[in-house]
Amino acid sequence: MNRLVAPFGAVTLFAAMASTSVQAQSDVLSAQESDPNLMGWMQGFPPPPDKLITQPDSVYFSFPRLRWSVCHLREFLPTEEISRGLRAPVPHEYPSPAEFADLRQQIDAVTFTPQNSDEEMTWEESLYANYTDGMLILHKGEVVYERYFGCLEEDGKHAIMSMTKSFTGLLAEIMVVEGALDDTALVQDIIPEIGGSAFASATVRQVMDMTTGVKYSEDYSDPNADIWLYSAAASPLPKPEDYEGPDGYWEYLQLVEPEGNHGDEFHYKTINSDMLGWIISRVSGKSVTELASERLWRQMGVEQDAYQTVDGKGVPFAGGGITAGLRDLGRLGQLMLNQGELNGARLFPTEVVTNIRNGGDRSKFGDGFPTFGPGSYTSQWWVLHNDHGAFAARGVHGQTIYVDPTAEMVLVRLASYPRAQNGFIDPTSLPAYQAVAEYLMEQR
Questions:
Q1: Which pTM was predicted?
Q2: Which H, E and C letters describe the chain, residue by residue?
Q3: Are strands 391-395 and 121-122 parallel, antiparallel or unpaired?
Q4: Domain chopping of the chain, boundaries
Q5: I need a surface site. Which of 7, 82, 145, 262 has the fewest CB within 10 A?
Q6: In this predicted model, which residue has the larger pLDDT, 18 or 108?
Q7: What CATH number belongs to 97-167+301-443?
Q8: How far apart (Å, rounded) are the C-alpha atoms in residues 230 and 245?
């Protein structure tokens, strides 16, 4: 168990993620060896003591347990539902069974060269190298590839980590384009109780694009990092008797101190997403779960409800708490590719996606993401600025919705890579995505 987490109860998703980030990574089991079905986690009635994964002992997101836990977050943390409503789902389109099987074989055999390597790798090899739990590819609106591994099955759900931020950012961008939210307004004018927090003088757009000058460290290896205070505040379990810190995400945000100037640089800090969640909830009069249900999930023809973890006061974790199904995430990606249209209906204005695809100020992106390349970040989406105009939602341990407008391709990967940071995964993932996009453009 991570000793840093124990005093706080170790119950937030942040703290759980941290337990994998600081552990030693030598001699890590392969994807095949760490398959949760093979490992036997939580099997039996009751499971043997050495196969239990429990809460609140802080081990449920340590590798290799995380390979089971990513599909079972609701068993560890309280959640709110993102309801799909009562409409029947709108099925995805597929090729004929024979063509679908052929496409899988062909795509599995696609080769590419990883970053900083001279040796080719196949698409299928990359899936195992990156501990893939689910992979879905849509091309021209049709599912051309779909596979499940580990804990995930076609009717299952998987934690999407920081892809949640892109849900939050998309909802905010919709509100901005529709005129419900002024992105030039100061946070203090919308949330007066933010008080003297560093967020008070930031604009909504600076929060959306993470160019705020706020002090916050997510260095899990640093025992004094702000992430530990945030984890303690967000814990949904009762606080220790001697606890004197903030209670919940929003109380923590009121205490954030300044660091640098608003608008100067992009700094990836999750507290921006929770600040944005508070802003859109205050302006809309709805929680982010209600808003996501109303504007997205009820309108997209999804197959399953999603759910989102909450703090001790019932505030949804806008920066990383959603769990959803693979196919439904593909629908969201297709909605973005179609610039706000899906199943013959317009869900939001084209300008929403145009703004996101254009990206943020590239001069502010810096060089802190060398494996990602010279990209940008806006409305909580990552923009690659590559030849295909690709943009993505991304989350730790390998979660991705990758939208390639030139190739008319949407790719969704759910994974449980042993290390949290995508910098370890990008060298194989990003070239693989490009290779498959080019293959589909040539063959279909």
A1: 0.94
A2: CCCCCHHHCCCCHHHHHHHHHCCCCCCCCCCCCCCHHHHCCCCCCCCCHHHCCCCCCCCCCCCCCHHHHCCCHHHCCCEEEECCCCCCCCCCECCCHHHHHHHHHHHHCCEECCCCCCCCEEHHHHHHHCCEEEEEEEECCEEEEEEECCCCCCCCCEECCCHHHHHHHHHHHHHHHCCCCCCCCEHHHHCHHHCCCHHHHCEHHHHHCCCCCECCCCCCCCCCCHHHHHHHHHCCCCCCCCCCCCCCHHHHHCCCCECCCCCCCCCCCCHHHHHHHHHHHHHHCCCHHHHHHHHHHCCCCCCCCEEEEECCCCCECCCCCEEECHHHHHHHHHHHHCCCEECCEECCCHHHHHHHHHCCCHHHCCCCCCCCCCCEEECCEEECCCCCCCEEEEEHHHEEEEEECCCCEEEEEEECCCCCCHHHCHHHHHHHHHHHHHHHHHHC
A3: unpaired
A4: 6-82, 97-167+301-443, 169-278
A5: 7
A6: 108
A7: 3.40.710.10
A8: 9
Same fold, 97-167+301-443 and 169-278: no
| pLDDT computed for residue 26 by the predictor | 44
- Cα separation, 364 vs 192, in Å, equals 28
Under CATH, which number does the domain 169-278 receive?
1.20.58.710
Token representation of residue 319: 């920066």
What pLDDT, in 10s, does the model give residues 337-346? 999 999 999 9
Q: Find tokens 């002024």 and name the residue.
A: 182
- Taking alpha carbons only, the member of 269, 246, 245, 274 closest to residue 259 is 269
The alpha carbons of the chain give a radius of gyration, in whole angstroms, of 21
What confidence score (pLDDT) does residue 16 get?
Answer: 52
Q: Are 362 and 334 in contact (CB under 8 A)?
A: no
Q: Please give the pLDDT value at position 10.
A: 32
Distance CA 436, CA 135 (A): 13
